[in-house]
């Protein structure tokens, strides 16, 4: 598997994400936000967490207009895989590659702690290493993780089995406890929790590894 | 020509910040506040001289960047 990881000014989980991909056995190419195109021959693009452009205007809004995001949109429309974590999820909603929006946490506080997630579908390259209903422990660290979508959009996500993860205990007011959603072709995942921060026992757990391993096996079959 | 854009959360979208402001006002003794909604004002200096064209352009800016129309609505004033 060949993965590209984008760095925006203010990204701070780009190295962690690159390391998580590498630990699963992927080759990782690092990409700068001003690059116009993604490297040729990649299987997946990772959009990392952080505070791109200082969260100015809205989280992810400025990054969504970066030159590289045009390349990401082309890649996704051609059937490429994308994983957006935390700020990366916000960027994907701002570009319209995933539905909904991430609003200020209902409690107004930055929340930084490990949380339990329920795997809501195993039907994706990201979640096939789990079974539906599994509980995994992964850290969250965000101020704007309150996933918001209208009733029609929510019904569509539910009807198409596109909710990837929900929180066991909702930490931010997210609609229907949603922590992560899939695109309609199931090849784009956006999630607020950080699986790339849960791949080392020394750093509190390895529940996130299954996501990167599942991607690895999916790409090997492709 | 100047443009002023007001960006507000859509009706029906819960505004946690506005709610916190309402609560704080209540704590200060301002008991008559039923609801608070918080938004943004963005001012733009434009080189355009045609009002209608300027308005159309600023609306395009709102759709593309200044507002997230999934959760926000906007109004444009040209002066």
From TrEMBL, chain A:
Part of the FGAM synthase complex composed of 1 PurL, 1 PurQ and 2 PurS subunits. Keywords: ATP-binding, Cytoplasm, Glutamine amidotransferase, Hydrolase, Ligase, Nucleotide-binding, Purine biosynthesis. PANTHER family: PHOSPHORIBOSYLFORMYLGLYCINAMIDINE SYNTHASE SUBUNIT PURQ. Pfam families: GATase_5. The keyword Transport does not apply. Its main location: cytoplasm. The active site is at 86 (nucleophile), 194, 196. It catalyses: N(2)-formyl-N(1)-(5-phospho-beta-D-ribosyl)glycinamide + L-glutamine + ATP + H2O = 2-formamido-N(1)-(5-O-phospho-beta-D-ribosyl)acetamidine + L-glutamate + ADP + phosphate + H(+); L-glutamine + H2O = L-glutamate + NH4(+). It comes from the Bacteria. Its EC number is 6.3.5.3, 3.5.1.2. Pathway: Purine metabolism; IMP biosynthesis via de novo pathway; 5-amino-1-(5-phospho-D-ribosyl)imidazole from N(2)-formyl-N(1)-(5-phospho-D-ribosyl)glycinamide: step 1/2. This is Phosphoribosylformylglycinamidine synthase subunit PurQ. It is found in: Cytoplasm. Part of the phosphoribosylformylglycinamidine synthase complex involved in the purines biosynthetic pathway. Catalyzes the ATP-dependent conversion of formylglycinamide ribonucleotide (FGAR) and glutamine to yield formylglycinamidine ribonucleotide (FGAM) and glutamate. The FGAM synthase complex is composed of three subunits. PurQ produces an ammonia molecule by converting glutamine to glutamate. PurL transfers the ammonia molecule to FGAR to form FGAM in an ATP-dependent manner. InterPro entries: Class_I_gatase-like, PRibForGlyAmidine_synth_PurQ.
From TrEMBL, chain B:
Its EC number is 6.3.5.3. Pfam families: PurS. The keyword Secreted does not apply. InterPro entries: PurS (IPR003850), PurS-like_sf (IPR036604). It comes from the Bacteria. It catalyses: N(2)-formyl-N(1)-(5-phospho-beta-D-ribosyl)glycinamide + L-glutamine + ATP + H2O = 2-formamido-N(1)-(5-O-phospho-beta-D-ribosyl)acetamidine + L-glutamate + ADP + phosphate + H(+). GO terms for molecular function: phosphoribosylformylglycinamidine synthase activity. Keywords: ATP-binding, Cytoplasm, Ligase, Nucleotide-binding, Purine biosynthesis. Coiled coil: none annotated. Gene3D superfamilies: Phosphoribosylformylglycinamidine synthase subunit PurS. Pathway: Purine metabolism; IMP biosynthesis via de novo pathway; 5-amino-1-(5-phospho-D-ribosyl)imidazole from N(2)-formyl-N(1)-(5-phospho-D-ribosyl)glycinamide: step 1/2. SUPFAM superfamilies: PurS-like. It is an enzyme of class 6 (ligase). It is found in: Cytoplasm. PANTHER family: PHOSPHORIBOSYLFORMYLGLYCINAMIDINE SYNTHASE SUBUNIT PURS (PTHR34696:SF1). Part of the phosphoribosylformylglycinamidine synthase complex involved in the purines biosynthetic pathway. Catalyzes the ATP-dependent conversion of formylglycinamide ribonucleotide (FGAR) and glutamine to yield formylglycinamidine ribonucleotide (FGAM) and glutamate. The FGAM synthase complex is composed of three subunits. PurQ produces an ammonia molecule by converting glutamine to glutamate. PurL transfers the ammonia molecule to FGAR to form FGAM in an ATP-dependent manner. Belongs to the PurS family. Part of the FGAM synthase complex composed of 1 PurL, 1 PurQ and 2 PurS subunits. This is Phosphoribosylformylglycinamidine synthase subunit PurS. The gene is purS.
């Amino acid at each position: 598997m060949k993965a590209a990881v984008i760095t925006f000014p203010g990204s701070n989980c780009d190295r962690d994400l690159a390391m998580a991909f590498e630990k699963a056995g992927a080759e990782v190419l690092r990409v700068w936000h001003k690059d116009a195109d993604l490297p040729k021959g990649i299987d997946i693009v990772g959009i990392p967490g952080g505070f791109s452009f200082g969260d100015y205007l809205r989280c992810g809004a400025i990054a969504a207009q970066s030159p590289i995001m045009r390349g990401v949109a082309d890649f996704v429309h051609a059937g490429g895989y994308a994983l957006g974590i935390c700020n990366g999820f916000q960027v994907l909603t701002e570009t319209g590659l995933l539905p909904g929006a991430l609003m200020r946490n209902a409690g107004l506080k930055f929340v930084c702690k490990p949380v339990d997630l329920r795997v809501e579908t195993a039907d994706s390259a990201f979640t096939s290493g789990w079974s539906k209903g599994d509980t995994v422990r992964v850290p969250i660290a965000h101020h704007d993780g309150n996933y918001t979508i209208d009733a029609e959009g929510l019904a569509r996500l539910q009807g198409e089995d596109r909710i990837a993860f929900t929180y066991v205990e909702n930490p931010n007011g997210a609609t229907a406890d949603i922590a992560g959603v899939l695109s309609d072709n199931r090849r784009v995942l956006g999630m607020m929790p950080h699986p790339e921060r849960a791949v080392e026992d020394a750093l509190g757990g390895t529940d996130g590894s299954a996501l990167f391993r599942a991607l690895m096996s999916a790409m090997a079959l492709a | 020509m100047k443009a002023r854009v007001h960006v507000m959360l859509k009706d029906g979208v819960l505004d946690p910040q506005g709610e916190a402001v309402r609560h704080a006002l209540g704590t200060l003794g301002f008991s008559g506040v039923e609801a608070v909604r918080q938004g943004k004002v963005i001012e733009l200096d434009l080189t355009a001289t045609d009002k209608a064209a300027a308005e159309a352009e600023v609306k395009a800016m709102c759709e593309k960047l200044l507002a997230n129309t999934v959760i926000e609505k906007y109004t444009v004033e040209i002066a």
